[in-house]
Amino acid sequence: MQEYLQTYSEKDNPKKYQDIHQTLFVYYDDLATVEDIKTITLEQEEALVEANYHKQIIDTESYVNWFYKKVDPFNRVARYELQISLFEQLIQLSQRTVGEEHPEYAIHLNNLAALLESMGRYEEAEPLYRQAIAICEKSLGEDHPNTRQIRQNFANMNAQ
C-alpha cells in the first residue's frame, strides 16, 4: 500500500492526497488500538506501522504525542523490535522538522537509546545517549532537568 501511494504525488492533487492518507490513518489507527495488552496481535502491530506512516504525512504537529501514546502498550509488553523502526522514523521526522540540535530531537534519541538498553543492546544505545547529552548540554545547558535526566539514564546503563 505504501509503495503504491508513494507513486501518487501530492503535487497531482493535494486535497485527494491528504484525504487518502487521512482515511487510511483513521482505518489503521483504529485497528492498532489496544484494549488489553495481554491480547496484542500481529494484525495490531502491522496496523500500527501503517498508521504511523500515514500520520507522519497528514499531521506532523500532533504526530509525536500520538506516537508515544500509541506505542506505549507495545512497550509495556516488550514488543521492542517493532518499536525500533518506528522510533527511527520518528527521529528522521524530528530531524527534518526541528533539526538535529533541538532538544526534542535529543529526547527521541534518548528514548530509542533506552529501548535499545532494555534489549541489552548497550553498544547501540551508547552513542545515542552521548549524542542526546551533547545536544541538551548545548541547547539547554548542563543543569537543565532534561540534560540531567539523560545523563543519569546513561550513567545507569553504564552501571549495569
Report on the architecture of this protein.
The chain has 160 residues and is mainly alpha-helical. The chain has helices at residues 2-7, 14-32, 42-58, 60-76, 80-97, 103-118, 122-139, 145-159. It has 8 helices and no strands. It is globular.
N-end to C-end Cα span: 43 Å
Main beta-sheet strand count, sense and barrel state: none
Number of strands: 0
> What's the average pLDDT?
91
Order of helices and strands: HHHHHHHH
Strand content: under 5%
Number of helices: 8
* Spans where pLDDT lies below 50 across 5 or more residues: none
Helicity range of the residues?
over 70%
The value of Rg in angstroms is 17 Å
Task: Record keyword descriptors for this entry.
79% helix, mainly alpha, 160 residues, single chain, 8 helices
Topology diagram in text:
Layout: H1 2-7, H2 14-32, H3 42-58, H4 60-76, H5 80-97, H6 103-118, H7 122-139, H8 145-159
In short:
This protein has helices at residues 2-7, 14-32, 42-58, 60-76, 80-97, 103-118, 122-139, 145-159. With 160 residues, the protein is mainly α.
